[in-house]
Amino acid sequence: MPPKRFPTRHLHTLRTHNGPVNAVTFSSYPGTYVLTGSSDRAIHLSRAVPSNAENSATPVETTTPIQRYEAHGYSVLDVAVATDNARFASVGGDRQVFLWDVEQGGTTRRWTGHNSKVKAVQFAGEGDSVVVSGSADTTINLWDTRSNANKPIQTLAEASDTVSSLHVNMPTYSIASGSYDGHVRVYDVRMGKTTVDVLAHPVTSVRCSVDGNALLTSTLDSYIRMLDRTDGSLLAAFGGPSKKAEGPTLGILDTKPRHTYRNTELRVRSVFAQGDAVVLSGSEAAPKGDGTATGAAVFAWDILSGETVATVPMGENVKAVSCVAWNEKGYWAAGCADSTVRVFG
């Protein structure tokens, strides 16, 4: 079934942070709120779409969050929300894993088992009783939220470089991880089995489809690949290095600048959207003078056809969109290097 028309109307701009936004996630269904983590060391809770945004001719701007969560001493690099919306976990340059009480506004646990930046965090287990963290120290740690122990219940140490991304798929009891060593590893927690796919380029993002059968991976060669979880075969590829404009033999070139998907240096996240029918990703801005438009954009591709269904520029001064989030009510959010978060619907 082809995806519904992809939503590209700019509804809301959040100007609450004063540093690049590294993490953005909607609260659990119905996703009324959005949690954002930034290099300014803070996590902000804001309304995703203010009540007046739908009928406004221009995007509504918010400059003050509903709640600020401040305990990190370094950049916040990832945030995950529990299903009950009462707790969330955050990680960053502190080498610690923080568990927060949303209403109280403070941390309830701080785990210190990593010895380098922590890049990724996810909830797992029954009732979100486990927190999973991935670090630049090459390990993945599993923490029990119900026990007072300070040591992880399990450490996965197969990676040989930074673990940049994690995604837990509870229906298949699996943890997918991406690492700068160019490998995607999927841990089947029930069977105690690990499957490995070699992508030969640093992996910046990994997501499982809802049914757990497909893996979406972003790598620093400007490609997003969808892999078959069972045998690692390539199901589809999106993006790819920009192709220079080639004119007819008369030598007339198409000089109109255009946005091309680019990811060669930074950790850029990609996600499934519209019920796994679309791939949505941020990107890096192209270097000046290479014929492509300056400023980063968000891209959406139809999974079946591979066609680009939307290219949404974020403005000439935005060097990167490092994170995106999709909400099944039809909204999506982009976290930008210019410290803004923009919500579309």
From TrEMBL:
Q: Which domain of life is it from?
A: Eukaryota
Q: Where in the cell is it found?
A: Cytoplasm
Q: Name one GO cellular component term.
A: cytoplasm
Q: Where is this chain primarily localised?
A: cytoplasm
Q: Specify the signal sequence span.
A: none
Q: What Pfam families would the database entry show?
A: WD40
Record InterPro entries: WD40/YVTN_repeat-like_dom_sf (IPR015943), WD40_PAC1 (IPR020472), WD40_repeat_CS (IPR019775), WD40_repeat_dom_sf (IPR036322), WD40_rpt (IPR001680), WD_repeat_MORG1 (IPR051980)
GO BP terms, alphabetized = mRNA splicing, via spliceosome
Protein family membership: Belongs to the WD repeat MORG1 family.
Q: What is this protein called?
A: Anaphase-promoting complex subunit 4 WD40 domain-containing protein
